Description:
Strands 1, 2, 3, 4, 5, 6, 7, 8 and 9 form a 9-stranded antiparallel β-sheet that branches. By secondary structure, the protein is of the alpha+beta class. The protein has one domain (4-164): Pnp Oxidase, Chain A (Roll). 20% of the residues lie in helices and 40% in strands.
Amino acid sequence: xxxxxxxxxxxxxPSARPTPWPETLRVLEEAELYWLATVRKDGRPHVTxxxxxxxxxxxxxxxxxxxxxxxNLDRNxxxxxxxxxxxxxxxxxxxxxxxxxxxxxxxxxxxxADAYLDKYGEAWRFEVGDGAFGTSDDPAAVFRIAPATxxxxxxxxxxxxxxxFPAR
Length: 168
């Protein structure tokens, strides 16, 4: 189901039009790098770059189970993921807000491992273990972020589009 789409005229050029969701989804799918924001135990933000894949309109990422972001997600699964061009006058920046949910079933993990391989090549070939990527003593937890709200920040002309997604 497509999200409800609104253009916020307060934050853009009068000639701006809403960015269609398929265009925003394409930017998410093609991004090489994402920035993930989680919340630490004491409420401070934690932001880190990572790789990821988009599957079934959701952003997926993995992290070692002992890493800071995994520990943060154990306490608070609310996250923000960003990607884009890091330029002022061209491209499209995207922000996705949602809840990170751990993926543990083998078929889904295999699909995502294949997606990482397709996108990033051999450098990011993951073995599927028991509820995680990897079969060693240091597995990587895999998370799915289904968007609750997303934003596209267009630059030609400047315009801010908000997408609201029905509860899944």
